[in-house]
Amino acid sequence: MRTPYIAGNWKMHKTIGEAEALAGQLRSAVANTAHTVMVAPPFTALQAVGAVLKGSNIKLGAQNMAAEEAGAHTGEISVLMLKDLGVEAVILGHSERRHTYGENNALINAKVKLAIQHGLTAILCVGETLEEREAGRVNAVVEEQLELGLDGVSEGQLGQVVIAYEPVWAIGTGKTATPEDADAVHQIIRSRLAGLYSQAAADAMVIQYGGSVKPDNASGLMAKPNIDGALVGGASLTVEQFLPIVQYDKG
After folding, report:
1. How many domains is the chain built from?
2. Would you give per-residue pLDDT tens digits along the chain (251 residues)?
3. Residues contacting residue 237 through CB under 8 Å, at least 6 positions apart
4. Which of 89, 101, 112 is nearest to 38 (CA)?
5. Rounded CA gap, 123 and 162, in Å?
6. Do residues 98 and 64 make contact, with C-beta atoms less than 8 angstroms apart?
7. Can you give the CATH number for the domain in which 149 is found?
8. Is residue 63 within 8 Å of residue 37, measured between CB atoms?
9. Is 161 strand, coil or helix?
């Protein structure tokens, strides 16, 4: 049985004080949930949010990390630095990193393997653009990102991986894939995992949906058999929006 995994990606929002306040509200609000819950504040707020969340059931996540442990990499954040702050999970290959900052599959794969090596959960994001969807290339794009992102990752290491399907055209646009469309792509991902590894590995993999997830669509998405969680952007920035998503099954 896969445990639902709800993650909040705060992106480039929240000062340290604002992040501490939100983390404190969330700590109390989600204390009794059986789901896995994670929040990824901006790097500047990681230490403060980590202190607020210490001892709670909310995991501390990071939004990205470098592909190297240390060295002359101006402006980058090392996996060692993240671990030092108590980070447990890291979002890798987010569409904004791919399409705005030019990260390719090889770089993302290096990050995934480094995160696993250091005991972090790697949330590997995959998803197509609107142009790719309209060209009928959804399967090809998602499968390529999945395969290249997991290159060199063994079946035994998959317990440290979460896949997030995020159609690029649905991120921050207000547009959301229908539950049926989203589940169909999640099924494609699960089938490809079975081919790359085994059916047991595919059945065990947690696959999140990301792309304008909101309180009014979360339960419909999560009701689908292959959707195991959500990678939430804008709706994770307030307790009023994020809590109903975490508690999607209590409505």
Report:
1. 1
2. 899 999 999 999 999 999 999 999 999 999 989 999 999 999 999 999 999 999 999 999 999 999 999 999 999 999 999 999 999 999 999 999 999 999 999 999 999 999 999 999 999 999 999 899 889 999 999 999 999 999 999 999 999 999 999 998 887 777 778 999 999 999 999 999 999 999 999 999 999 999 889 999 999 999 999 999 999 999 999 999 999 999 999 86
3. 8, 10, 13, 14, 22
4. 89
5. 5
6. no
7. 3.20.20.70
8. no
9. strand
Domain encompassing residue 22: 5-250
* Residue 245 to residue 238: CA distance in whole angstroms: 11
Structural tokens at position 102: 């030019």
Q: Report yes or no: 177 and 211 within 8 Å, Cβ to Cβ.
A: yes
Identify the helix (H) or strand (E) that includes residue 220: helix 215-222
- Report the first-to-last Cα separation within the chain, whole angstroms: 22
- Whether the model clears a pTM of 0.90, i.e. scores above it, the answer is yes
Task: For residue 52, give Cα distances in angstroms to 5, 158, 198, 241.
Answer: 20, 29, 40, 20
**What is the rounded distance in angstroms from the CA atom of residue 162 to the CA atom of residue 91?**
9
Pairing of strands 36-40, 121-126: unpaired
Q: Active-site positions?
A: 94, 166
